[in-house]
């Protein structure tokens, strides 16, 4: 992959990483500011807990994405970014634009998903 392309993806990944990390800080401070004593009604309390659980699930997904972004940045540094971990072939730029953290070309990903489907059926 060309140096300009690598820089492009590095910029995308760093931008997304910064966005996720700043969003995480806001969520934690927002959750800490909620005064639970203002919800004497059990329904209001249940709604608060449901919202909080949903927020935590979203943040857990974002935490996993942060790890994937850091791994992708590491691959850029070590020269393996854009190479499929399964077959060793280059991952298309179009696929990397859609999912910059991917480690599989589209063909290997399709194969992996088919195998998963057969295993769950």
Verbal overview:
It is a single chain. This protein has 121 residues and is mainly alpha-helical. The protein has two domains: 1-81, Up-down Bundle (Four Helix Bundle (Hemerythrin (Met), subunit A)); 82-121, no CATH class. 74% of the residues lie in helices and 0% in strands. The chain has four helices and no strands. It has helices spanning 3-33, 42-78, 93-98, 106-120. The longest helix is centred in the middle third of the chain and has 37 residues, at 42-78. 8% of the residues are buried.
Features:
mainly alpha, Four Helix Bundle (Hemerythrin (Met), subunit A), 121 residues, 2 domains
- CATH class of the largest domain reads Mainly Alpha
**Helix-strand pattern:** HHHH
Number of helices: 4
What class would the helix/strand composition place it in?
Answer: mainly alpha
Low-confidence stretches: none
* Rounded Rg: 20 Å
Q: What fold name stands as the CATH topology of the largest domain?
A: Four Helix Bundle (Hemerythrin (Met), subunit A)
Which outline best applies? flat
Share of β-strand residues: under 5%
The CATH superfamily of the largest domain is known as DksA, coiled-coil domain
Q: What is the first-to-last residue Cα distance?
A: 39 Å
In CATH, the architecture of the largest domain is Up-down Bundle
Total strands: the figure is: 0
How many domains is the backbone divided into? Answer: 2
Helix content bin:
over 70%
Query: Tell me about the biggest sheet?
Result: none
List the helices and strands and how they pair.
Elements lengths: L2 H31 L8 H37 L14 H6 L7 H15 L1
